[in-house]
Fold these 4 entries.
Entry 1:
Amino acid sequence: MNRLWGVFRLSEMEIFLHKCRKITPYSFKTQKINPKPSIQLPYVRKYCNSNQTIWSDIITLFSDKWSTDSVYSKLKQDLKDKVSKLKDEILMQNDDVEKIGKVLEENGVELFRNYSDGSAVVELYSQLKPSPHLALEILNWRRKQLDYASPMTAEEYAKGITMAGRSKNVDLAIELFNEAANKQLKAASIYNALMSAYTYNGLAMKCQSLFRQLKKEATCTPTIVTYNILISSFGRLMLVDHMEATLREIKDLNLSPTVNTYNGLIAGYITAWMWEEMENTYRIMKASGIKPDLDTDLLMLRGYAHCGKLEKMEQVYEMVRDHVNQKEVPLIRAMICAYCKSPDINKVKKIEELLGLIPENDYRPWLNVLLICVYAKEDLLEQMENSINQAFEHNASITTAGVMRCIISSYFRHNAVDKLADFVKRAESSGWKICRSLYHCKMVMYSAQMRLAEMERVLDEMDRVNMHCTKKTFWILHKAYSRWGQRSKLEQVLGMMCKHGYRNSLNA
């Protein structure tokens, strides 16, 4: 009876394995287990004739811990660990190409051969993302290896094309594409990689041309990834009509849009400053059952910052605060810019909190100018001067009269004529925008303090920068001399005003 029970159990196990197509029925031949195609699993050991071994393997196969997902997860982690060890050895060679080649020969060849689907190489490229030059060196090494050892796969070529595009080496990307085509490895992923490289480097026309070429291929067809890249390409060029036509084509082909499809649309609408369409796309995306990812949230944060919808901007910011604070300095600057342009009564406090998240060496002249204006309008003289000093230290210059008048007004409201005089000297020597308002303001402020001699010297400063007296200049002198009883000088000014025809306008 026990023998029959054992035969029944053995037959049950064989049927199970046959359904999984791991071994042939009624024989225990060594086969590869491959739950998911992206990772090649090691060989299952051969079964021996020992009853103890058979029963041990039956228990192992039917236990919960060896479910498909857990096996895949463990093997994926095992692959990452092996590749990570190889990566560390490569990084220790200090960019020495010969030594890196030796490490690859000793430890890489066998690893790549064990994972002949290319997953180990692709994983190595991914782990070397912070060092793209090393990834490209390994790619060159791989191309020189004999194909019979561990031939390059389509996915490896696709990853190489993507890396070349990110390194702005379009010629290398094209070379890899042609090399893959010559090896009969044409696949949608290869086309997608080159289209992405073209888009990243601003070659939209070539991207579209390659898309048309893909549509003519007999062995592969465009995928949803292909259309996502096309939408992104059109969005960068603000070709909204083309972008929307691509979305209609996706629906006509019964392809399922992904989160990247909607992200590309949202990014395109933001680039074109089409805020309503941006929000509508976001609502449609959520209504379609597609959950927004981190990229979606970051796009919406940028969009709300640019269009000045502070309440919604702050709501999204709360969702992704930790990520933005650590890794998204451009978005922090966009939020500061939004606050600078807003009437929010607490904007200075919010601006300074965000400024604390930006590294000290990450200076942007345009942002500094905005801060100068904000502090000037809020009459925060010390903060304004700190921002002005930063501009001088970084050899940045202000070239618009409006910003200069904003600075002048702040000095005037604080009655800080000496600080204004110092600012005007520095602005002259640094090539900033020089306007009469700078000098007229100094004259008015010197007059208010009865510092008439210094007021008169301002006229010499104006003459030194080839700035002639105008009706307003004489009017300021007339008011000053009248106020302080300088009759003789007043008569001289009246004479000059008559000479220039300003007498009547003054009386008016």
Entry 2:
Amino acid sequence: MRPLLGLAVVGVVGFVVLGSVTSALGPVLPTLRARHDLDASGAAWLLTAFSLGATVGVLLAGIVQRRVPDRTSLAVGSGLVFAGCALLPAADDAVAAIGVLLLIGLGFGAVDLLLNLVLAGAGRHGSLLMAVSAAFGVGAVGMPLLVGWHPGRVDLPFWTCAGGALLLAALTRWLDLPAPRRRVPPGCRVLPGRAGPAGGRIAVVLLGAVLLGYVTLEGGVAGWETTHLHATGGSSPSEAAGAVALFWGGLTIGRLLAAPLVARLRPRRLLLLALGASTLSLLAAATLGVVPGAAVVAYALAGLSIAPVFPAVIAWHTMRYPGGEGVVVLFATALAGPVLTAPVTGALVDAHGTQAIPWILTALAAVTTALVVATRASRVLR
């Protein structure tokens, strides 16, 4: 098999696995809560463990990248995802489940960073990455549907994820992956930009904060939508789990529609439009939740709305740092979002009930929108 074709196969399988793992935890969260007798705060620690593991995985992968071949690190990361997904259904208490989700997160973070960097360095202008990243949506949409098909089961979705991770590990080891072409080896340092070292650090921190808000919002909807719909929207467990597929479907369609917008609109303007629309969509989910099906549609529109945020932030970063400086910091900061907010969300849900979930998400969207507005005052991001 030719190197570029082999890399494309690895990319497709890898993004399907990433999408599946990302979307699996939210739909099974009510089942894990019941199995381990957890309140909302306890369930939030399951989300936190995964996000913390992903953050650490990104940082570790970035640190060892110059010493360990990407193929080896990808295989190790895939192996960790396989082991964690295979073990989660057998976790007999909440502490074990948290430990296993931390393990899954470690592998996820490493695979997420390295797969994006390797694919971005292949083809012309990252064309291979753009082509195969749509496979993320296949996994993200398919997994909630699988959970909805057999609600109450943890083994079916996570053993499916384990099988995909095992296939990815095998492909990574057997295929002849080309070395990525990078102008600057990515690392954990933020190198000087046009505004000098201090300005460069400020720019990456600001962009990382916006990306953190986006990942928190995406993870918040994916993690808590099923719980909200099942408890307050009159949806059955199957319908509530399957409804998350509409959110991921909206996000996938939005990414496809956003491709020409990223090239035509300045990143700040596109971010304001996307985050403003998502704020209104989530507000609709909060205020119209009693209307049958209204919250499901509102969540789907939120996915459609926030879809351009990630590529817009990456485009903004690339405009300032064409060599990719600070990309590890950007990824790690983004994945740390739910680590900070999931426990707070769980505590608020315990205090005010599941009807508070869309209001919390609306507030997160509004704060992230305000952060983008505040970047106007930064000279390093003009």
Entry 3:
Amino acid sequence: MYKDIVTDVFFDLDHTLWDFEKNSALTFKKILKENNVDIVLSDFLEVYVPQNLIFWKLYREEKITKEELRYQRLKTVFNELKYSVSDDMIHLLSNEYIATLSSFNHLFPFAIEILEYLRPKYKLHIITNGFQDIQDKKLKTSHIYDFFDQIINSEMAGVKKPNPIIFELALKKAKVSPKNAIMIGDSLEADILGAKSFGLNALHFVANNEPEHEICPIINDLREIKHYL
């Protein structure tokens, strides 16, 4: 479908190649135990996962700061679970979470396989809303850093997806026009609508049973990329 026009493939990182939820769960399992926070991990994650998405959306929309994101997503969970914890402990857990998260390296199934399939045919890049030092460490720890020519992050761009400025910067660094580029990501708002609004092609990787749409092709398995590229 895109084989004749696409020369450059842009991937989102978290929730697309790097299995954020699995790595995040392993991180919390480690740091909650080490800090003697006596709370059932499954109960914690049941509240944390949707809250984290809510606070990331606020951060993406410039409604909260990075510091507020990191504090509030934990404070909200402990409040909802009625677990008494000091602000000092929340800040400690927040810092340890950031320091530990990128030490885990689980990727989505077939991530390496599809990158190896694409690399001889296309230039590969990353566009991520994550923080530069953490995202670089994730890429290196999971052994996929060297697959990518350009790695664009929101700190570098000064804005977050879906802001067109980050896509403009990515295309400029990759030296490619929008019509010859494709964005593959999990977020309909940030990745798909953001890319489409700037003229890029798109593939929506749906890992969590999001609603169907006709904005672009939807894939549920990274191997399905081979049908389009």
Entry 4:
Amino acid sequence: MKCPFCHHEDTRVVDSRLGKDGNNVRRRRECPSCERRFTTYERVEEILPYVIKKDGRREPFDRAKIVSGMQRACEKRPVSMEQIEALVDRLERHFQECGDKEIPASLIGEAVMDALHETDEVAYVRFASVYRQFKDINEFMTELTDLLKNSGKG
């Protein structure tokens, strides 16, 4: 690691500790040339895939967009922010572990709907109505009928 003060190429680690959140390592380093100390943080580089939009554009995976969409769907529902964060963590981890460099946006949308379906059916219907862009009330009713059949209430 290069010294930030004198730019000497080789520094040594004096102390290492797990970071506060447990997701990084805090290292105290010392430069043998200028003898100054500094702190570095080491963390795993998260490689998230690019998202292929419907129109063919590609953009980086954006966790905030998923959280925002789920928050809107879960508004005034008994779903906590912690639950939403946990769902998004699970989705993000899934897409990270799948190893694909690019994924279609439709795959993300379907995964979000599946997660909401398991969590809160009203939030699921809200998200699905926006995501699937129902053309008329009949498409919406078909989705609701399927939901009722699958949940054993219909």
